[in-house]
What does this fold into?
Amino acid sequence: MNVWIAIGVTAVGCYVVKLVGLLIPAGALERPLVQRLAALLPVALLAALTAQQTFADGRLLVLDAKAAGLAAAAVALLLRAPFLVVVAAAVVVTAGVRAMSG
Amino acid sequence: MQDALGVGVAVGLSGFAFGVTSAGSGLTVLQTCALSLLVFTGASQFALVGALAGGGSPFAAAAGAFFLGVRNAFYGLRLSQLLALPRAVRPFAAQWVIDETTAVALAQPTRRSVRIGFTVTGLSLYVLWNLTTLLGALGAEAIGDTAVWGLDAAGPAVFLALLAPMVRTALERVVAGLAVVLGLGLLPVLPAGVPVLVAALAAPVALWADGRRRGRTESVGARDAAEEKR
It folds into this structure.
């Protein structure tokens, strides 16, 4: 039930922000500070989410095979690899490290 | 054309990764598909299933997903001027206001091609995203334990790939670093889902600090500016 509540709230919220952008008059969100905050907010959220999903197991911090997988993805990004290769690198290296460590 | 193909492959693959991640996080196939059909903005969907898997409350999880979706309002603002849609059509177009459709539409030279680009990209990505989500969710059920195959690393890798092009300036690096410290540091002490929301505060805090620093640099003059460079 909780999952459906989360799905419903997210669906309504995400749809409303999309619609708001199309409906409000131009200029309302054009202030430089608002624009800069809107650009920085995803940076903060994505950075925190990447770190949590890599190093957290529930509420515990862990260092496991996923860290090696994410390091591989980071290297792929530095080498300007396409999206497909970045995600594949993370998956393959994580599986490989798990297989080796038993 | 090649760009369109590249976007299609990337979106299809993320859709598959999302289906696998969502099913691996304990959501049913129906719940997974409902998310792709109704939410249709990838980062928010990944964030939501990640937060739910971590034991977060539905509202904290939804709040994180919502804040990630806020950027779409700014895309809509740009698109609204270019598309010039009748008001009655806007509620139907809104669901397709996402990163990829905005990128394609903004690259078009005329209003007609903006509208065509937006509609074709929106429709094809919507179909592709939902199909690959279904395939991923069914695939994950067939695979069983997704962790054995390293598929639990797909979610964070997608986030990292989305994040990388956004981090260019020193300010952006500070925001990302501060958010990581807050997100991980607060994890053991705050309820699940809340640390991400606190980490989002890194954005306004860094912006405020940057504004103060600039103000001071300007008033003190060249000496501070020289120190900045060093």
